[in-house]
Amino acid sequence: MLAHHKGVLTVAVVLALISSGLGLAQPMVINQLIETVGKGPISHLAWTLVVLLVVSSIVSAVQFYVLTVTAETAVKSTRHDLIGHMLRLPISVYDRFRTGDLVTRLGSDTTIIREAFTGGLVSAIGGLATMIGAIVLMALVDVFMLALVLTVVTVTLIAVIGSSALIQRYTKRAQEAVGDLGAGMDRALVAVRTIRASGAQNKVEADLRDEADNAWRQGVNIARVAALIFPAAGLALQGSFLLVLGIGGARVAAGTITVADLVTFVLYLFMVSMPLGSIFGAITTIRAAMGAIERIEQIMGEERETSTGVQARPAHSVRFDDVSFAYAEDSPVLVDVSVDIPAGTKTAIVGPSGSGKSTMLALIERFYDPTSGRLYLGDQEMADLTRESVRDVIGYVEQEAAVLAGSIRDNLLLATPDATDEQCWWALDQVNLRERMEEADGLDTVLGDRGLTLSGGQRQRLALARMLLMDSPILLLDEPTSAVDSQNEQLILDAIDASAADRTLVVVAHRLSTVTDADQIIVLDDGRVAG
């Protein structure tokens, strides 16, 4: 994650070493001050100490800023990579992951990683350098007391590292639980009108509360382990101070060390204890981040949709040659389908639910590839073509027409960003939406999330207008009138007729009114062509 920021990290490490060196010099100056009091002038030593304190603070501030900005930049890069990767995964991956869980990995998981670097790495780098230097200098003052301190610290550190592995495990579970909650809430908000109309608020609320309770339980597990780690670390540090003060006082009384040496040792012990506390916290935070990194790597490890092959030539016909397909190995959806869709014709695909109608369109769009058999675009086998070039010659409107939040213009320009306003109005004319849009703010009319300010029929017609702007020679429509009333149905049928001019049209339909003027009707039953 930080591999692309080695230069900045090197600067940060150098600053950390400088800050540590300046800090470590301070007890030595204090030692000289104590030894010199009453024996000679001390003003030069006092000024030296002030300069060390000021410069050390400035360097620490710069180091903190550099590391924090680097961590933020690294997280931003990770989010960019995730966004690009998620949008280019095979459609089959989205069948396996829930939307809310994917969103959680992009938002919550990357935030945990950022906190680990800003709250963990920032503290640990400088702290580790200071701690090592302080231990070396403590050895020069009194090896015996250092050995006692290191014994206590080492035992505590081993216990902390061992316990932190549990935090990594629980954090991964907690993020998965948050992902489940997000997915459930996403589904509920999409269907909020249905939930209200059905009076199902209490049931949905209970289900979501169960998801939230699961996330809470995982969070409590993390808190339980952390509650053991931090008091243990604090107890070890307090015990070290008491040990040093007790034994150090006895050694001063015995004349083994001087008071100045004891003060110096205690100051270095402070320098060990403060970063040691930060390191204990950093271990916990970084372990938590490792759980989040596992979830991000799970997505980044998914191969992107392949895009190899030659460019598709402009074509108006499609042919299925003994095509079979299954989403799961033991559940075939299409079996030995052989169909010709001639250029310039209107082909209707009908059949009961689950017979494979929408799957045929998904195969033409190359969202999936056939399990067996061949699929042709014109005289070219689709398996030999790049997916992008196939989609360039095919317009597709799915059953639940996707409308993005934003304006009418934003939606129309999704696939054709260079289209002019005149072309946009032409497309709206073709689907009988111009009058509706002129009543509002024209092309700048803002739509609600998922186009909820539009009726079902208006969303379908807007999707048709967007497809018309693509000017694709082949159009695929998946049940365009399934969720509209008779008035909107006729408007959509008129729009389909307008869009079909000089194009090949493939329509999946339930209603006979949609297919009465079709040039051919393909009847599917249990994945096979029945007529």
TrEMBL record:
<feature type="transmembrane region" description="Helical">
    <location>
        <begin position="116"/>
        <end position="137"/>
    </location>
</feature>
<feature type="domain" description="ABC transporter">
    <location>
        <begin position="318"/>
        <end position="530"/>
    </location>
</feature>
<feature type="transmembrane region" description="Helical">
    <location>
        <begin position="265"/>
        <end position="290"/>
    </location>
</feature>
<keyword id="KW-0812">Transmembrane</keyword>
<dbReference type="InterPro" id="IPR036640">
    <property type="entry name" value="ABC1_TM_sf"/>
</dbReference>
<protein>
    <submittedName>
        <fullName>ABC transporter ATP-binding protein</fullName>
    </submittedName>
</protein>
<feature type="domain" description="ABC transmembrane type-1">
    <location>
        <begin position="11"/>
        <end position="288"/>
    </location>
</feature>
<dbReference type="Pfam" id="PF00664">
    <property type="entry name" value="ABC_membrane"/>
</dbReference>
<keyword id="KW-1133">Transmembrane helix</keyword>
<dbReference type="GO" id="GO:0005524">
    <property type="term" value="F:ATP binding"/>
</dbReference>
<dbReference type="GO" id="GO:0016887">
    <property type="term" value="F:ATP hydrolysis activity"/>
</dbReference>
<dbReference type="InterPro" id="IPR039421">
    <property type="entry name" value="Type_1_exporter"/>
</dbReference>
<dbReference type="Pfam" id="PF00005">
    <property type="entry name" value="ABC_tran"/>
</dbReference>
<keyword id="KW-0813">Transport</keyword>
<dbReference type="InterPro" id="IPR011527">
    <property type="entry name" value="ABC1_TM_dom"/>
</dbReference>
<feature type="transmembrane region" description="Helical">
    <location>
        <begin position="44"/>
        <end position="67"/>
    </location>
</feature>
<dbReference type="InterPro" id="IPR027417">
    <property type="entry name" value="P-loop_NTPase"/>
</dbReference>
<dbReference type="GO" id="GO:0015421">
    <property type="term" value="F:ABC-type oligopeptide transporter activity"/>
</dbReference>
<dbReference type="GO" id="GO:0005886">
    <property type="term" value="C:plasma membrane"/>
</dbReference>
<comment type="similarity">
    <text>Belongs to the ABC transporter superfamily. Lipid exporter (TC 3.A.1.106) family.</text>
</comment>
<keyword id="KW-0067">ATP-binding</keyword>
<keyword id="KW-0472">Membrane</keyword>
<feature type="transmembrane region" description="Helical">
    <location>
        <begin position="225"/>
        <end position="245"/>
    </location>
</feature>
<keyword id="KW-0547">Nucleotide-binding</keyword>
<dbReference type="InterPro" id="IPR003439">
    <property type="entry name" value="ABC_transporter-like_ATP-bd"/>
</dbReference>
<dbReference type="InterPro" id="IPR017871">
    <property type="entry name" value="ABC_transporter-like_CS"/>
</dbReference>
<dbReference type="InterPro" id="IPR003593">
    <property type="entry name" value="AAA+_ATPase"/>
</dbReference>
<feature type="transmembrane region" description="Helical">
    <location>
        <begin position="143"/>
        <end position="167"/>
    </location>
</feature>
<keyword id="KW-1003">Cell membrane</keyword>
